[in-house]
């Protein structure tokens, strides 16, 4: 799908991926709310407007059709089975149905449970950094940003280490669907195959946990929710596992790599961190604000209504542009500046909102925090060598292909 119109912000343009700032500024100046007919939806970029709409009962979570809207027209019929599958996920439900499923997984991501994982995260980071220091260089994306969250979520789900390579294939592939990147027959077929492989693998794993439960393991606890209860169906369990895998991997990896890139492009901020390591928390939040892993959130209009002179019609999509709202100068002074002295960085909207606030936010924050602390603790020198910085060609998931860092 190619850009065909002069819009303040064009999600389908490669320029948005490469450098979104000009479009962000134009949207704030010209049209904080506007309709893109190709996406069958409204883009909302004002921080105040996002906050005003986040709990509006006329907007619903049953919005899997955004995947179809972001797919080239000639392939939209082909993605129907995937859209139908995604429509059954927890994040596509509201009310009691959403609460029922979310409650079964939520305790694994509560701060106390996450705190227990901190030592394991530190151990993974320490091992990576020791190897990097021997060479004097770290390729952050492949050596730390991806392996660390993969290790944690695989261990939480009870996936044995000899099967972790499957996770490396499944999760990026499923995220092609979640980010609306179903751009060819080949990609669609890959996602279909990953879906079938996940179901086959976890059908066997569920049978094993029924015979031999494992204390303290998330998968065992979810399987036990199936037994003698109508609280979770087997299909809902498969969908929940896919959601947990997808949500706890790529986005955390890109939070870490985006954050280090922002820091190394602002060496005066690195000096601030060296002087006051407690600023690591702000480093995480300022990265989430300025360079979020997920550029947008979506809802669907269930009931038509007027908003700031615009008519939102039933069936249309709402694209809450987190990357735009997070750089709203009315809420964040000097919005394009990466600033560890910023006092309201936590007011970003990168984790969503309301009942659908990201269930994995405590885990992602902890993993990024410990990764950043570990990098600082192990190094006296951090530099960004000359290199081409390339982003993934994806308008929804914002991440780096690689990031080489000099370490001493």
Characterise the protein shown here.
Helix content is 51%, strand content 9%. The chain has helices at residues 14-18, 21-30, 47-53, 66-69, 80-86, 95-106, 111-115, 118-135, 140-145, 147-157, 164-178, 185-211, 218-226, 234-247, 250-264, 267-275, 280-290, 322-325, 361-378, and strands spanning 33-36, 41-44, 59-60, 137-139, 296-301, 305-307, 310-312, 317-321, 382-383, 404-407. The protein has a five-stranded mixed sheet with strand order 1-2-8-5-3. A three-stranded antiparallel sheet has the order 4-10-9. A hairpin with a 2-residue loop joins β6 (305-307) and β7 (310-312). The chain is built from 19 helices and ten strands. 43% of the residues are buried. The longest helix is centred in the middle third of the chain and has 27 residues, at 185-211. It has one domain (14-407): Cytochrome p450. The N and C termini lie far apart (45 Å). The chain has 408 residues and is of the alpha+beta class. It is globular and about 60 Å long. The mean pLDDT is 93. α15 packs across α17 and α17 (280-290) crosses α19 (361-378).
List the helices and strands and how they pair.
Blueprint: H1 14-18, H2 21-30, E1 33-36, E2 41-44, H3 47-53, E3 59-60, H4 66-69, H5 80-86, H6 95-106, H7 111-115, H8 118-135, E4 137-139, H9 140-145, H10 147-157, H11 164-178, H12 185-211, H13 218-226, H14 234-247, H15 250-264, H16 267-275, H17 280-290, E5 296-301, E6 305-307, E7 310-312, E8 317-321, H18 322-325, H19 361-378, E9 382-383, E10 404-407
Parallel strand pairs: 2-8
Antiparallel strand pairs: 1-2, 3-5, 4-10, 5-8, 6-7, 9-10
